[in-house]
TrEMBL record:
Protein name per the record: Carboxylesterase family protein
Lineage, highest ranks first: Bacteria, Bacillati, Actinomycetota, Actinomycetes, Propionibacteriales
PANTHER family given in the database record: CARBOXYLESTERASE
Xref: Pfam families: COesterase
Superkingdom in the source lineage: Bacteria
UniProt-listed InterPro entries: AB_hydrolase_fold, CarbesteraseB, Type-B_Carboxylest/Lipase
Carboxylesterase type B domain mapped to chain residues: 35-326
Organism field: Nocardioides plantarum
Region called Disordered, residue ranges: 50-71
């Protein structure tokens, strides 16, 4: 039960009673924040176990750790998403942001992007303060294992345990179902939402065993579903790299050993690049692995799940542009104005359609045919002076605005989020997401969003 008797805006410590045990959180400015709460623990390359209930209060006043990772390739558009966070393999944490006045509120569970290689739910860039306050929703940010540690179990360890990062995410959803009423949330009204790899992982959770009843709605932003074919050879090539370094896959608890694992991971990623477009997403939950059906059973699983889960899918107009320009062959053309207009823009349109837009439209169509509700949108807003257009990640500052948290994002150019006219775009987008989470109401067209199919 949240203490709501004091309207003082100054931060103060409150104690919440949850199913797992009492939690000390911070209450200020109409919100309660509980950070870095552990929902599980796992040995390296082993399934996570849920945290056992506790008796004494657990401190949840400080941010939790980020998963081990190297710098993100998307810093070139969004800036750093892990600045100020320590990294630790013991990274299975959630943070909760809840309005301090409300009960049985809708719940939104955020899964961050980063190609299953980078990012953290603890990042300042995913601060849900405005979304929670304006929308009257409880927001849960999830962190889970990434890269080799989450999605590529070495053959020498096990040929059975796969998709460990996905099992972490499902474990987090069970934590939400069990505990969220202690933060004022309604466990029967949960929406999962995520961007890029986070959206792709939601696609996997929709197909997973053991997720029925854990969420009612799902928002998939820029899911790279067009990269989900032809992955077996890629995966085997990366496993060959791990097989050549068995000494690096031992017991955790050593910072040097974690660094060595990341170095081997980088070698595996380089091996994946020769597999074309699929190599842009070297890690991902594997169909036929733990929790997931084999490819030939996906449509049957959608038929079982779709009637009970509403979908909202989005992509951005220039979703592929950062990845196109990161290609050395293309980047050399970027300085040539005529080449940019005739080659880069055409490649961006082609890849955006193939990787993001067309698969989202296909999933929406398949979902509706299976008896579910699905709507598909394009996000078109772009700053006039950045050169990045409406690129991958461009909607994130509007969902998660904060004081200077996006000041290092090149994709925004000289635009400041929260100033006119971006305040209208952000308020509209947050209201649309919160309304969908509350009742399933789908957005209209306007303030950056364009309805494609419904």
């Amino acid at each position: 039960m949240i203490d709501r008797t004091d309207d003082d805006r100054r931060p103060r410590i409150v104690e919440l009673q949850t199913a797992d045990g009492p939690v000390r959180a911070v209450q200020a400015d109409g919100l309660v924040r509980a950070r870095g709460i552990r929902y599980g623990r796992a040995a390296r390359f082993a399934p996570a176990e849920p945290i056992r209930p506790w008796d004494g209060p657990v401190d949840a006043t400080e941010k939790g750790p980020a998963p081990p990772q190297q710098p993100s390739r998307l810093e070139l558009v969004m800036g750093s998403s892990t600045r100020g966070l320590r990294q630790d393999e013991d990274c299975l944490v959630v943070s909760v942001t809840a309005p301090a006045s409300g009960t049985s509120m809708p719940v939104m569970v955020w899964f961050h992007g980063g190609a299953y290689l980078t990012g953290s739910g603890e990042s300042d860039k995913y601060d849900p303060t405005q979304l929670a306050l304006e929308g009257g929703v409880v927001v849960v940010n999830v962190s889970h294992r990434l890269g080799v540690l989450g999605y590529l179990t070495p053959r020498s360890v096990s040929d059975q345990e796969q998709n460990l990062g996905l099992t972490d995410q499902v474990l987090a959803l069970h934590w939400v179902h069990r505990n969220i009423s202690g933060y004022g949330g309604d466990p029967a009204n949960v929406t999962v939402f995520g961007q890029s790899a986070g959206a792709d992982s939601i696609w996997a959770m929709l197909l997973s065993e053991g997720t029925t009843g854990l969420f009612r709605r799902a928002i998939l932003q820029s899911a790279p579903l067009g990269l989900r074919t032809g992955r077996d050879a890629l995966r085997n090539a990366m496993l060959d790299v791990l097989d050549a370094h068995p000494e690096l896959m031992g017991v955790q608890d050593s910072a040097d050993q974690t660094a060595a694992v990341l170095a081997t991971q980088a070698t595996a990623v380089r091996a994946a690049r020769r597999f074309g477009a699929a190599g842009a997403l070297p890690f991902a939950p594997a169909l036929g692995g733990t929790l997931l059906p084999p490819p030939e059973q996906v449509l049957d699983q959608i038929g079982r799940v779709a009637p009970g889960v509403d979908l909202l899918l989005t992509h951005t107009r220039n979703d592929a542009l950062p990845f196109v320009l990161a290609d050395p062959r293309i980047s050399r053309l970027a300085a040539r104005r005529i080449a940019r207009s005739t080659v880069i823009e055409q490649v961006d349109r082609l890849v955006t359609r193939r990787v993001f837009a067309k698969p989202a439209a296909s999933l929406a169509k398949t979902w509706r045919a299976a008896g579910g509700q699905a709507a598909h949108y394009q996000f078109d807003w772009a700053t006039p002076d950045s050169g990045w257009g409406a690129c991958h990640c461009i909607e994130l500052p509007f969902l998660f605005p904060g004081d200077d948290t996006w000041a290092d994002a090149p994709m925004l150019g000289t635009t400041s989020i929260g100033d006119d006219p971006t305040d209208l775009v952000g308020a509209s987008l947050r209201a649309a997401w919160a309304a969908f989470a509350t009742s399933g109401q789908v957005p209209g067209t306007g303030h950056g969003l364009r309805l494609l199919t419904r």
